[in-house]
Amino acid sequence: QVHLQESGPGLVKASETMSLTCSVSGDSIRSYYWSWIRQPAGKGLEWLGRIYSSGTTDYNPSLKSRINMSVDTSKGHIYLKLTSVSAADTATYYCARYYSGTYFEYWGQGILVTVSS
Amino acid sequence: LLTQSPATLSASPGETATLSCRASQSVSDDLAWYQQKPGQAPRLLIYAASIRATGIPARISGRGSGTEFTLTISGLQSEDFAVYYCQQYNVWPTWTFGQGTKVDFK
């Protein structure tokens, strides 16, 4: 069974960089697309971007200048960095695995990140 | 853009709930449905508009293609009261979700 676990600081100061890690167990990272999705409290889901195991990325145009995703296949980790954060970036952040780059078949439990002023 | 309706559906256990998802342009049958309960991650229910994911009971069904899609939950059970999202994976450059439909107790 594939298991995804997000980790990182739960509190980040405004204007700083948020860094999250998604740890994957139960299967290899190789040959899959992985994504980060976020959800502000009480609101809907926003797709942030995706990364293939080779490192190829695609980002939501609304975040393209601030977002970076990377992968370490040897560690089974997927990383998210979001620069110049503001209160609007406060949300629960999920990592998820795509089935062939389409729908999201596995999700992590999510991590709440709060941006403080 | 995906538009879900209604925003909230009030129903009683045993009833049938029908949720709608409309796309602003054709997404073929590249549409998935997810269920999300409070404090939990979304769970995949349906993909390719009508195929149930592993472990999803037959009382949950999806249909549609192009721009009009429905998710039907027959014989509502207590565990079905949740928020449901549709998601399209046809139109690039982003994978988009609907705004969600909450199914709550009447």
Descriptive report:
- The complex is a heterodimer of chains A (117) and B (106).
- Chain A has 117 residues and is mostly beta strands.
- Chain A is built from no helices and 11 strands.
- Chain A has strands spanning 3-7, 11-13, 18-25, 33-39, 46-52, 57-59, 67-72, 77-82, 91-98, 104-107, 111-116.
- In chain A, a hairpin with a 4-residue loop joins strand 5 (46-52) and strand 6 (57-59).
- The model of chain A has no long low-confidence stretch (mean pLDDT 95).
- Chain B has no helices and 11 strands.
- In chain B, the strands form 2 sheets. In chain B, strands 2, 4, 5, 6, 9, 10 and 11 form a 7-stranded mixed beta sheet that branches. A 4-stranded antiparallel beta sheet of chain B has the order 1-3-8-7, with no helix packed on it.
- In chain B, a hairpin with a 2-residue loop joins strand 7 (60-65) and strand 8.
- Chains A and B meet through strand 5 and strand 10 of A and strand 5 and strand 10 of B.
Spell out the blueprint of helices and strands.
The complex is a heterodimer of chains A (117) and B (106).
Chain A: E1 3-7, E2 11-13, E3 18-25, E4 33-39, E5 46-52, E6 57-59, E7 67-72, E8 77-82, E9 91-98, E10 104-107, E11 111-116
Parallel strand pairs in A: 2-11
Antiparallel strand pairs in A: 1-3, 3-8, 4-5, 4-9, 5-6, 7-8, 9-10, 9-11
Chain B: E1 2-5, E2 8-11, E3 17-23, E4 31-36, E5 43-47, E6 51-52, E7 60-65, E8 68-73, E9 83-88, E10 96-97, E11 101-105
Mean pLDDT of chain B: 95
Largest interface: A-B, 20 and 21 residues
**Structural shape of chain B:** globular
Estimated helix fraction of chain A: under 10%
Classify the secondary structure makeup of chain B into a structural class: mainly beta
Number of E strands of chain B:
11
Total number of helices of chain A? 0
Radius of gyration of chain B, Cα only, in angstroms?
A: 13 Å
The number of helical elements of chain B comes to 0
Q: What's the helix-strand series of chain B?
A: EEEEEEEEEEE
The SSE order of chain A reads EEEEEEEEEEE
List how many beta strands of chain A DSSP finds: 11
If you average the pLDDT of chain A, what whole number results?
95
Q: First CA to last CA of chain A: what distance?
A: 40 Å
Largest sheet of chain B: 7 strands, mixed
Distance between the termini of chain B: 29 Å
* Spans of at least 5 consecutive residues with low confidence of chain A: none
